[in-house]
Automatic annotation (TrEMBL):
Biological processes annotated in GO: proteolysis
Protein name: Endopeptidase S2P
Alphabetized InterPro entries for the sequence: MBTPS2, Peptidase_M50
The keyword Mitochondrion is assigned to this record: no
Subcellular location: Endomembrane system
Region of interest (Disordered), ranges: 1-29
Bias (Basic residues) ranges: 1-13
Transmembrane segments: 82-100, 120-145, 438-462
């Protein structure tokens, strides 16, 4: 991250470039110690969350910004008086001091180069970080696989997926749709969650409760149905014994027709089955992707029935396929499931499995930490390196972009004040007094507007 917040300083306010008559007649002490200092401050309170895990990038950026800044001023023939490094609360910064009289004698174009040095370095930092993020998969290609399947880096003990997924597992698919990276994971979770909320807005009668499965069913053999526990709808929900889930029959030819046949006393019925066994069966229904179902029609064979899960409003049924390429069993077989799987259905035979999550999809999606990179060798600790590099680059990009924008604003004590002063001074068709008035109005207005904007952003973040 590049430093920002450079401001001209002396023993008091430096002389303005605006040629006011009062300033033309003002005499000042030409003591050799008079210097102009360039202050570089790394950030503001809104950036604290980005800083804590990444102290080294902030310190390393000092070694970049100081030589870059001094090279610009040295090219203008200005001698560096001193360089100092300081710590503003928790943000490191740097002070580069130059002779004040020499700076004041420079042409306006040279002054703009000096005043814009901090902004320029922040812009360069943004460009470097952006290019590094784009080419990071190519840079890490010899050591990591990118974009095959998102790998689990960690999940808390309170995560609904705890006990089903472990660090090192790769998520292959959600509801039969292949997942390649964390972005696709969150995109699918959001889509599933939106569909769940749309279904929960339907009328709360029996038929709507039974059809919340999104027409995603499984071809269940008649022999398995005969052994299943049969229940009836009570208070708009089905209650199955422990470790069993409710499934209802439906007709593919009529989306509103439920064909379960267990509606004694006017009540709808369902079959209680073991979900982990059902998900291994062939899929039916038109709610699945075309590549998932093995038939062109949603119908099953004659000795099978198409059953879909019966869900209550607000509860999601998500089928998750995963692989564990770094397990001892998989390593002994010499397999790499994440790289060799041709489709979600083959994950079971490639060091993985499938399970069903029933609950809140939104909380489930945010409860697991994923990365798009997988080590090419069985060294799981190395999986954290790409994720850490991405966070450092993203944080540095955002902070540098913010500082470049802030320092370009016409605000007191920032580079924007000096830049505005030079620009106004070049408006030669106005008198000196009018230029001074325009400068003060723009500076005051820019400061007030920036304070209001930053305050509003801060309130939206913390409230």
């Amino acid at each position: 991250m590049m430093m920002g917040g450079r401001r001209v300083r002396r023993s008091g306010r430096g002389h303005s470039l605006l040629p006011l008559s009062s300033r033309h007649h003002r005499h000042h002490n030409h003591h050799p110690a008079n210097t102009i200092s360039c202050w570089y401050i790394t950030g503001f309170h809104v950036l604290i969350s980005c800083f804590k895990p990444f102290q080294s990038p902030f310190h390393s950026s000092l070694s970049f910004v100081i030589p870059g800044t001094t090279s610009i001023e040295s090219s203008e023939g200005i001698r560096v008086e001193y360089i100092a490094i300081f710590l503003a609360i928790i943000f490191p910064g740097a002070v580069v001091a130059f002779n004040y009289e020499v700076v004041q004698s420079l042409p306006h174009s040279s002054l703009l180069r000096i005043y814009c040095a901090g902004i320029w370095h922040n812009a360069v930092s943004c460009a470097v970080c952006g290019l590094a993020l784009i080419f990071l998969p190519l840079i890490l290609f010899p050591l990591y696989i990118h974009g095959e399947s998102p790998m689990v880096l960690g999940l808390s003990s309170t995560s609904p997926l705890f006990g089903y997924l472990s660090p090192g597992d790769s998520i292959v698919s959600l509801d039969g749709i292949r997942i390649h990276d964390p972005h696709e994971w969150m995109k699918m979770i959001t889509l599933i969650d939106e569909q769940t909320h749309q279904n929960s807005n339907y009328s709360d009668d029996a038929r709507s409760v039974l059809t919340l499965g999104g027409r995603k069913g499984y071809c269940v053999p008649s022999s398995l149905l005969d052994k299943s526990v049969k229940i009836q709808l009570e208070d708009s929900q089905f209650v199955c014994p422990d470790e069993l889930s409710a499934f209802v029959k439906f007709s593919c030819f009529n989306s509103s027709l439920l064909d379960n046949g267990y509606h004694e006393n006017g009540k709808w019925g369902a079959n209680c089955l073991t979900a982990k066994h059902v998900v291994k069966l062939n899929k039916c229904g038109d709610g699945w992707p075309a590549a998932v179902t093995s038939r062109s029609s949603c119908e099953c064979s004659q000795d099978q029935s198409c059953l879909m899960p019966a869900q209550v409003p607000g509860v999601t049924w998500v089928e998750i396929a995963y692989s564990n390429p770094y397990s001892l069993e998989c390593l002994q077989k010499g397999e790499n499931s994440s790289a060799d799987i041709e489709g979600p259905e083959s994950v079971i035979t490639n060091c993985g499995g499938t399970f069903v999550f029933i609950g809140d999809a939104h909380s489930m999606g945010h409860s697991v930490q994923l990365t798009a990179y997988q080590p090419r060798w069985a060294f799981f600790l190395g999986a954290y390196l790409p994720n850490t590099l991405e966070k450092i680059l993203v944080c540095t990009f955002h902070v540098s972009l913010t500082l470049a924008f802030l320092n370009s604003l016409p605000v007191f004590f920032l580079d924007g004040e000096s830049i505005l002063e030079v620009i106004v001074c070049n408006i030669t068709f106005l008198s000196a007094r009018k230029r001074e008035k325009i400068f003060q109005i723009c500076l005051l207005g820019g400061t007030l507007f920036s304070i209001l904007a930053i305050s509003r952003i801060s309130l939206s973040i913390f409230l």
